[in-house]
Structure of RuvB-like helicase:
Amino acid sequence: MIQLKKMAGRALLLAGAPGTGKTALALGIAQELGKKVPFCPMVGSEVYSSEVKKTAVLMEHFRRAIGLRIKENKEVYEGEVTELTPEEAPSQTGGYGKVISHVAIGLKSVKGSKQLKLDPTIYDSLQKERVNVGDVIYIEANSGAVKRVGRCDAYATEFDLEAEEYVPLPKGDVHKKKEIVQDVTLHDLDAANARPQGGQDIMAMVGQMMKPKKTEITDKLRQEINKVVNKYIDQGVAELIPGVLFIDEVHMLDIECFTYLNRALESSLAPIVVFATNRGICQIRGTDMAGPHGIPVDLLDRLVIIRTLPYTLEESVQILAIRAQVEGIAMKEDALARLGQLAEQTTLRHAVQLLTPAHVLSKNNGREEITAADVDEVHALFHDAKYTAQLLTEQVDKYIQ
Ligand SMILES: Nc1ncnc2c1ncn2[C@@H]1O[C@H](COP(=O)(O)OP(=O)(O)O)[C@@H](O)[C@H]1O
Ligand SMILES: [Mg+2]
């Protein structure tokens, strides 16, 4: 539903005991959505900063989770690089140094070719994008921004597998209008407009650093940006890509934040919000009321609640096997089964944490694979939360209370 954009402005709550895979599920959602959809994770307690207001922290994360795909027709020079020569001149400040006075670049397309003489600042962009002769690039005419599209397919080799992306020689003229697609978040726009970059020369940068204070992202600025964004959306220039805001440990938020969330979810520019909590009925922070999951009922009423259940033995074993594989740890079959049992007895997280020490132990004993005996040994060495609590009650007279 998120991918079909049917979820914007709605919210989910993942509720379940610790270690039932809530955080893992949210990260899985992020992976599935891919790079083009913004995913912004945060933990409830992050709102308590001494410098920024709680609602400002929430607001920033909200805006990081809303994407905008902007399509612009820009005047560009596009083609395969046929020549790339920085022209040097003696430094004007004297001394032995040489500076680059301009860059000569040749671009070729299907219809023609062009020789350009460019400003030295563009040379830096060309180097940053690692442009070489034979690459296909475009340069935006009014900003000088350089984008490397790929390597021209005339240079394609017969390897089956290669890191390089080959692209055909661009059609049309070198100098033309081209539709350029850019993915940004509302927060990117806020930040870019709060600190205008100005020219790229050193003096402009120094000037910025010497400014008494960085301009803040104010509500007024955000409203201005929303206005422009809405206009772009109406005109079809930009497309809204509602992403996901993930707030883990949501019971850490207080009533002020919850009230703010209630309102923010109703805004026309809202992401999909996924909350997670492992709390039952507990106090709603900032009030003396209790609520299910520490969340006020009016907010709870808006949420689709998904209960996460403890993993079964087979599932735990499967997850442990995946973890071991990811970390490059080899385990004997019975060791895995033993660790799975431990996960049942203690917690999955504890069992996952035993993987590395067990690996070290088996290596020190000159073995490649972890055995069940290794698992038993690390289990004896390291206590889990339940066991340590039990010990403390048993030996209550030995500790300082
Ligand atoms: N489907 C899964 N695949 C791989 N690892 C998982 C999976 N589900 C849970 N885990 C692992 O189990 C542990 C507990 O899961 P987690 O998502 O942190 O629980 P919760 O957030 O509900 O407390 C973590 O170490 C996590 O990496
Ligand atoms: Mg978690």
Q: What stands out?
A: The two ends are 53 Å apart (CA to CA). Residues 22-23, 248 surround magnesium ion (ligand 2) (CB under 6 Å). The longest helix spans residues 219-235.
